[in-house]
Amino acid sequence: MKHYFNLFTWLPLIFFIHSINLNPTHSLTIPRLSPFQEKTLHDIATLVSNDPKDVETFYYKQVLDHFNYNPESYNTFNQRYLINFKYWGGANSSAPIFVYFGPEQPIDGSPKSIGFMVEKAPTFKALLVYIEHRYYGKSVPFGSREEAFKNANTLGYFNSAQALADYAEVIIDIKKTLHAQNSPVVLIGGSYGGMLASWFRLKYPHLAIGALASSAPILYFDDITSPNAYFDVVSRDFKEVSETCYETILNSWSEIDKVASQPNGLSILSQRFNTCRPLNHSFELSEDLESMYTSAAQYNHPPDYPVTVICSGIDKASFGNNILDKIYSGVVAYKGNGTCKVNNPKNISETDVGWRWQTCSEMVMPFAIGNDTMFQPSPFDLKRFVERCKKKYGVSPRPHWITTYYGGHDIKRVLQKFGSNIIFSNGLKDPYSSAGVLHDLSKSLVAVPTINDINSIAGSHCLDILPSKESDPKWLIEQRNKEVKIIQEWIAQYYIDLGALHGSPKFQNN
């Protein structure tokens, strides 16, 4: 039996809203090092002239605080970034630079997982750069992760604006060191990284000529998008695959609570679902199932299509015909039949810890479940959310800051005369597409959603920037080709403008 459960742990940003307490027994969770020898990019001459590896690791001495002039603001930390020189046409030909913005996780796996960059680099003769987000991976200030995450005083430098300023300094330093001042920079980012890429293009247009923002839910703030939108799409995805599967899941929650209320009910559920630890509360099972369904919908990638896998398992009912037997059949179909399935010990990752702070400070995304989904209704309670964050960190979230700093309200009216050269790509079966830009804002602020045919939507989270496969459907190939064509147009126009500025055609990229 194929095991699907851990297929997506390496992917660029899975958003986590941790423990948003909606009632006393339910918390809504949204489905997401080795020693090194430091070197600087200034050793690049010998690095390139010898036998360069595909990917090299570098560190930039990054300032702690870009926006204040207090003495402690001038403290520095080593920010990690990776470079692949293999395909680059070089500074003399003004060959482009593709920069991937690391999201809320270490950057280690990005050169392999972001297939779009490597696969398209030969076409563009592009230098590939991957920059790690501060406070993740090895880009940690204050000397250690323990000190960096000690309290709100040290975590206060951990936000998206600081991260964008970090990226700006690294890009400037790379271009200066490589004598590549005339090389155009194109940004690539997925999910949170896609949000950062689009925001960077708006905040630092002098440093990047365009951005590909894949699955970037920039409108999931400040009531621009309905809090119910994410779970509405998850439910729609399941219902489109199988209405009987949808109905089984819908009816399962009350059945779980019914069994749990019986004598030895939790023991019965623990045995029925082959839990890794005995259940102490029924919501432990419900939350695991909820997480499984949302992850399957968000990462419903071809050719596996995990939503179809789960629903096929539920509808086939291999382990019995009652509701919970059918649900367990879906769990086994998705996770495999070799190990325990539910309530396994939680391994808290740095992504979990870091994103918890980010959502308790500026990234306040109000997720809720409405009354017409396959899930139990759960409204978003901002007051309770604020109380929880204050209790944990001693500071209150700022739910309006993202739209204040980056915008979002009336986005077309605002950006059509201001922004340019951003691709907003979305898989329409991705629950996060509900908060993405799905329609062109202007001629150069373009939406590239996935459409199978005129009557059918397709696509999942960040699929367009992941490695291609021989089995990729036609609509995915067409989406990537469209993105490449747009980027080619950006770069071609850049060379025309640069040549005109210098009164010479030598900047045309051949």
TrEMBL record:
Bilayer-crossing residues are: none
Extract one GO molecular function annotation from the record: serine-type exopeptidase activity
Q: Which residues form the signal peptide?
A: 1-27
Pfam families registered for this protein in UniProt = Peptidase_S28
Q: Does the keyword Hydrolase apply?
A: yes
Q: What SUPFAM superfamilies has UniProt attached to this entry?
A: alpha/beta-Hydrolases
In the UniProt record, does the keyword Signal occur?
yes
Q: Keyword set for this entry?
A: Carboxypeptidase, Glycoprotein, Hydrolase, Protease, Signal
Any one biological process term the GO annotation gives: proteolysis
Under InterPro entries, the record lists:
AB_hydrolase_fold (IPR029058), Peptidase_S28 (IPR008758), Ser_carbopepase_S28_SKS (IPR042269)
Domain of life the protein comes from: Eukaryota
Provide the family line: Belongs to the peptidase S28 family.
Q: Which PANTHER family match?
A: LYSOSOMAL PRO-X CARBOXYPEPTIDASE-LIKE ISOFORM X1, PROTEASE S28 PRO-X CARBOXYPEPTIDASE-RELATED
Q: What is this protein called?
A: Lysosomal pro-X carboxypeptidase-like protein
